[in-house]
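[agent] plan:
  1. take the single chain provided in the ticket
  2. run structure prediction with default settings
  3. attach structure tokens to the ticket
  4. add a short note for the reviewer (M.T.)
[agent] executing step 1
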Amino acid sequence: MNAAAMGKADETLRRVFGFESWRPGQREIVEAVLSGRDALAILPTGGGKSLCYQLPAVVLDSLVLVVSPLIALMKDQLDALEALGVGAAVLNSSLDPDEYRSAADRVRSGQVRILYAAPEALATGRLPALLAERPPIRIVVDEAHCISQWGHDFRPEYRRIAELRVRFPAASCLAVTATATDRVRDDIAGSLALRDPFVFVSSFDRPALLLRVEPKTDTKRRLIGFARNHARGKTAATGEEIKGSGIVYCLSRKSAEEIAELLSAHGIRALPYHAGLPQEERKANQEAFIRDDVDAIAATVAFGMGIDKPDVRWIVHWDLPKDLEGYYQEIGRAGRDGLPAECLLFYGRGDLIKLRRFLDLDGDDSGDSTEGDSKWAARERLDIMAAYAETEQCRRRFLLSHFGEHYLRPSCDCCDNCLRDPEDLVDLTVPAQKLISCAIRLGNRFGASHATDVLLGSNSEKIERYGHGALSVYGIGSELNRAGWMELSRRLVASGHLETVPPYEVLKATAKGRALFTAGTFRTRPIEGSRGGSSFSPGAPVKSPYRKNPSADRSRAAGTILTVPGDDELFERLRTLRKTIADKTGVPPYVVFPDRTLRELSRRKPRSVEDLEGVFGVGAHKAERYGSAFVREISEWSETGE
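[agent] step 2 finished; step 3 output follows
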């Protein structure tokens, strides 16, 4: 790769895309792509993956084919590229015949540099025939984990992409994804026949995201309080007021509908999104969210993939996700602008049991070995997800270690476990010993619910039948109520003192648990139902259980939470102007300028279009297209507001 090409890439970064510097890994990936080398790029959601193939297409003025499973991503990227003055087109099932012909004609005429297509289109004759007329110089595989049977979102149609490598042997290949373990990376490289690829694996850390898990109790009141706080711009991550949108992820369509109604009834504009809605309604609801016409969307897990909305400030998982990879991608919808965002997961052991049963009912392990392997892998991923929800250690360290990354700091200062005041921990060694002893005396053959009945001295039919009323541990558990003992059992499983054995989730004491009788203590968060424990006050504002202003002393190893100061009144005026321009031009507000750009404009207060040079996200095309309106708004505010 010669210096001239990279010099042109640096210039394009500033002139076209409006960025003064590269994000980590981008320059190295672009250099490999410009040299014609195959590459595999693992970058976090919001880490700038799309620029790694968009910028080289501009530099080389050649056709790049991008295979993506996400129609929303295609539309989103098309709007953004058009705003930058870059020729792009989409070919997918959402186009009518006239629109398809028009896009194909633009490809043939050389007007298109970036062509987006769904993997299903590879099975028809039209797309391969079009590419034969204008062969791509590069094939980009977005969401590349979909090609791997070991990935969390395996899609068989992705396997057809390998046929493109045979049909266009001169085209290099770039595979990009945000989530891939070592096994998935190897499978991607093999499935795409990558030749001596340049492999870049970025840090998976998202410094701006505060990670929280709360018990799945009184969730409606908790959700309302959480969403109201964010509607006012309040976040537990920092003391700043940063407003933005939110997403509530659910596993069922019914929950999505109910949560949207719940939020709307409490003054938070919300809409549902799921596959059961008519296509036009689903599209309209997504557009309303993207265009800031609503505050939140309650959606099944398919929502948000590929949507580059940078100002999502909060994510709630109403149900336990099926795997850590999917969870990571979904929380990755938040804080893409680098500003603080908050991610809350409601977790109850019942979710885990229900998902395990769904997996068990989904066919059987006999027959096709590939299906059996995939099912086994799904079970393993689910157990890892549950372990994340139950851990009392640093959640960031747990998350990063799953992707093969070592987090060296003793505390991330940005998850609930690290931010919790150590003085809030209570000594529950004695109750823990009682529960472990109960599991042992039950022969490690009964679950937490039955063990709880024994400790509370229940007269249930099951206790009568097995004669467990005669056990020495019968009725010795008055210090906790039923919910408290069930919660303690979950924490002891998470800490490794107990383990659960499927399929009936029976409790079994581990060596670590037995050792607790002779040495050590068990300190944990207060448990609802324990003497002196914490409880949630219905109707009261949600309080942060964390140390005050954690960001004040926080400069994280993998990056610092971005703060962009600016005049709040001017910032709100610029947001209003942006919304007006976006509605008139038919694009999402963030396609005009992201919040980070508006913050910088409210701080710099440029007096002319020329003064916009160097402002984040303002390239030459956007400065020419939108600059005058924003400079005029700033001047008017300066005359009346300063």
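[agent] step 4 note for reviewer: Residues 364-370, 531-560 have pLDDT under 50 and may be disordered.
[agent] ticket updated
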